[in-house]
């Protein structure tokens, strides 16, 4: 049963337990950002997981022996934007990660800056909504350490990740890939900005030079080709307002596994 607790279908199917959880957290229900999530019908799965399991529940980690011999690349595998092509031509020497928005001091980080910070390596299973999974080893800097360097301004609630790839020209005409997570996931110990995969520099197909790993959520949350992180109090004016490229196309914002 403890494994089933992490499963959406258990939580959805468990009306009595869910009611008990809901009455236990009126303060959360009154928060505007939580209301926005609640309206989308996802509040239960997100907060029930957190209340039942605690905020710092780790995704399962595996051993070297479990590594998948082939880790499929999915979505964009070579961004076609001019900005990205120029970065590839210079071997990412001019790449910088911009971190701004609702922060105390906006900063930009070179790859050397990020690699000089403490790193974390984790072997985890990536689950894509399309139905495939793969186990890989990821190395990077914990996102929380980067956010501590810029400092959060009061009211910041989400980190939004902007990518270099124009995955699809649709909706508002811009297919730029982006994603967002809340601050609980941002400071989760397994949430890292990853520059290494399976002991080597991250390959272009997997998001070079830097991608997000947010291990308790499904594949499309793991934004590749990171260019900029923005701290915001709401994502309703970004893209089509749903918090991510795939969310704008109908997928869930909190995509727990
Ligand atoms: N920038 C960007 N990030 C992205 C995607 C993408 O197309 N563009 N695809 C997502 C999806 S659906 C998955 S499953 C994973 C795939 O990561 P991989 O190519 O390393 O397997 O990246 C996610 N992050
Ligand atoms: Mo995916």
Quickly list its features.
9 helices, 10 strands, disordered N terminus, five-stranded mixed beta sheet, binds molybdenum atom, OxRdtase_Mopterin-bd_sf, alpha+beta, 25% helix, TAT_signal, OxRdtase_Mopterin-bd_dom, DMSO/TMAO reductase YedYZ molybdopterin-dependent catalytic subunit, five-stranded antiparallel beta sheet, single chain, binds the ligand Nc1nc2c(c(=O)[nH]1)N[C@H]1C(S)=C(S)[C@@H](COP(=O)(O)O)O[C@H]1N2
In short:
The chain has nine helices and ten strands. By secondary structure, it is α+β, with helices and mostly antiparallel strands. The model is unreliable at 1-30 (pLDDT under 50).
Structural overview:
With 257 residues, the chain is α+β, with helices and mostly antiparallel strands. It has one domain: Sulfite Oxidase, Chain A, domain 2 (Alpha-Beta Complex). The chain has helices at 8-13, 15-23, 26-30, 32-39, 43-53, 82-89, 111-116, 143-150, 183-186, and strands spanning 97-101, 107-109, 120-127, 133-142, 158-166, 176-182, 191-197, 200-201, 211-214, 226-232. The strands form two sheets. A five-stranded mixed β-sheet has the order 2-1-10-5-6. Strands 3, 4, 7, 8 and 9 form a five-stranded antiparallel β-sheet that branches. Mean pLDDT is 84; it is low at 1-30. The chain binds the ligand Nc1nc2c(c(=O)[nH]1)N[C@H]1C(S)=C(S)[C@@H](COP(=O)(O)O)O[C@H]1N2 and molybdenum atom. Molybdenum atom binds at residues 74, 128-130, 219-220.
């Amino acid at each position: 049963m403890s494994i089933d607790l992490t499963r959406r279908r258990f939580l959805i199917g468990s009306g009595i337990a869910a009611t008990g959880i809901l009455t236990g957290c009126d303060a959360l229900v009154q928060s505007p950002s939580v209301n926005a999530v609640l309206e989308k019908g996802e509040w239960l799965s997100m907060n029930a997981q957190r209340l039942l399991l605690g905020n710092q529940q780790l995704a399962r980690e595996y051993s070297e022996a479990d590594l998948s011999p082939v880790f499929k690349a999915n979505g964009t595998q070579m961004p076609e934007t001019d900005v990205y092509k120029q970065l590839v031509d210079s071997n990412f020497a001019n790449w910088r990660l911009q971190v701004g928005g609702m922060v105390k001091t906006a900063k930009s980080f070179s790859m050397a800056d990020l690699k000089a910070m403490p790193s974390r390596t984790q072997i985890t299973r990536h689950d894509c909504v399309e139905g495939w999974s793969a186990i890989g080893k990821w190395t990077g800097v914990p996102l929380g350490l980067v956010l501590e360097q810029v400092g959060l301004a009061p009211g910041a609630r989400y980190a939004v990740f902007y990518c270099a790839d124009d995955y699809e020209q649709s909706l508002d005409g811009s297919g730029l890939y982006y994603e967002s997570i809340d601050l609980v996931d941002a400071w989760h110990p397994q949430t890292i900005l990853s520059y290494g995969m399976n002991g080597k520099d991250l390959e272009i197909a997997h998001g070079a030079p830097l991608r997000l790993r947010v291990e308790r959520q499904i594949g499309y949350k793991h934004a590749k080709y990171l260019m900029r992180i923005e701290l915001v109090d709401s994502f309703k004016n970004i893209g089509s307002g749903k918090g991510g490229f795939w969310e704008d196309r109908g997928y869930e914002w909190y995509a727990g596994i």
